[in-house]
Amino acid sequence: MAALVDVPAPVAVGVVQPALPADRDQILEIAAATGVFNTIELDVVVELLEGYYRGPEESGYHFLSYREDGRVWGFATWGPRPLSEHGYDLYWIATHPSAQRRGVARALMAEVDACIRARGGGWVLIETSSTPPYAAARAFYERCGYQCLAVLDGYYRDGDGLVIYVKRLG
Amino acid sequence: MAALVDVPAPVAVGVVQPALPADRDQILEIAAATGVFNTIELDVVVELLEGYYRGPEESGYHFLSYREDGRVWGFATWGPRPLSEHGYDLYWIATHPSAQRRGVARALMAEVDACIRARGGGWVLIETSSTPPYAAARAFYERCGYQCLAVLDGYYRDGDGLVIYVKRLG
């Protein structure tokens, strides 16, 4: 009789670090390749990335790259919330479709948490979509300890609601 | 034996309309007079008001003034949330301390709702403070149909938490 065993979550072997200027095109390629960013949202990625390259402290946007085998396979974007000392937004964590299920997003999330903790952050908020293409992202956030505060039906557009998540950093 | 009677809420007799350029100083005076905006938050009122005067659609910030007897006694600030077709933020509703309990805030709230409804808005979010000076504001939002989604302790700073409210517009 076969024993029941826990399958451990994969642990990524790459490196997470602040995005480099040379990462720009790969980050935008990853965002496009996920298939969940629409045209306007892709423009927002460009806008925030340009803010980050001008200066993360001034713009309030921070990008992390996950790098392995000489290229970028995932990125995360986070930043402080206005008027708050301890509140942060996690804007996106995105993994290239060719690098799914290898722990890339989890490695990025761990570094986002570490960066925010290092600045004295206590709360991280995520706003995401209620639609089926985002189901994997929502399940991932919940596995990472995020709690769903609310689902606002039809918020983005008819049929596409807002899901608000929050996590308290210990 | 005295009958129990409902005391009706006061109904303001002034006019709520988009803020005029000439309202600038009175709006800033009201914000300062409330005593709940700190220096940084007063700077944000100035910044959003300047955005509104440059162009509300471009800046995303809308100001309403409550006018009575030739002067402004209250203001409200609202705007669309980014990337959303039906989501809006209500930033502030403020009444001059000399005009409290006359229905000014309620008149402003009714016009905010009407403006957002007219644009097809379905959800309004408010972020406010958990501290005692904001207790009257929180009670007012709840009387106006806002539902508390969460209280994040220590979000603004130690001892000053974030309270998130939402209302669905019918």
Helices and strands in order:
2 copies of one chain form a homodimer.
Chain A: E1 15-18, H1 24-34, H2 39-54, H3 56-59, E2 62-68, E3 71-80, E4 87-95, H4 104-118, E5 123-129, H5 135-143, E6 147-157, E7 160-168
Helix pairs in contact in A: 1-2
Folded structure, characterized:
Two copies of one chain form a homodimer. With 170 residues, the first copy, chain A, is of the alpha+beta class. The first copy, chain A, has a single domain (15-168), classed as 3-Layer(aba) Sandwich (Aminopeptidase). In chain A, 32% of the residues lie in helices and 34% in strands. Chain A contains five helices and seven strands. In chain A, strands 1-2-3-4-5-7-6 form a seven-stranded mixed sheet, sandwiched between helices. In chain A, α1 (24-34) packs antiparallel against α2. The longest helix of chain A has 16 residues, at 39-54. The radius of gyration of chain A is 16 Å and the shape is globular. The mean pLDDT of chain A is 94.
Task: Produce a short descriptive summary.
2 copies of one chain form a homodimer. Chain A has 5 helices and 7 strands; from the N terminus they run βαααβββαβαββ.
Q: Residue ranges of chain A: pLDDT <50 for 5 or more in a row? A: none
The number of distinct β-strands of chain A equals: 7
CATH H-level superfamily of chain A? Gcn5-related N-acetyltransferase (GNAT)
Can you summarize the main beta sheet of chain A?
7 strands, mixed
Count of discrete structural domains of chain A: 1
Question: What is the CATH topology of chain A?
Answer: Aminopeptidase
Structural class category of chain A: alpha+beta
Give the oligomer, counting copies of the same chain as homo and different chains as hetero: homodimer
Q: CATH class of chain A, anyone?
A: Alpha Beta
Q: Largest sheet of chain A, order of strands side by side?
A: 1-2-3-4-5-7-6
Note the gap between the termini of chain A: 42 Å
Which overall shape of chain A is indicated by the principal axes computed on the Cα atoms?
Answer: globular
Output mean pLDDT of chain A: 94
Most extensive chain contact? A-B, 23 and 23 residues
Strand content of chain A: 25-35%
Order of helices and strands of chain A: EHHHEEEHEHEE
- The gyration radius over C-alpha positions of chain A equals 16 Å
Number of helices of chain A: 5
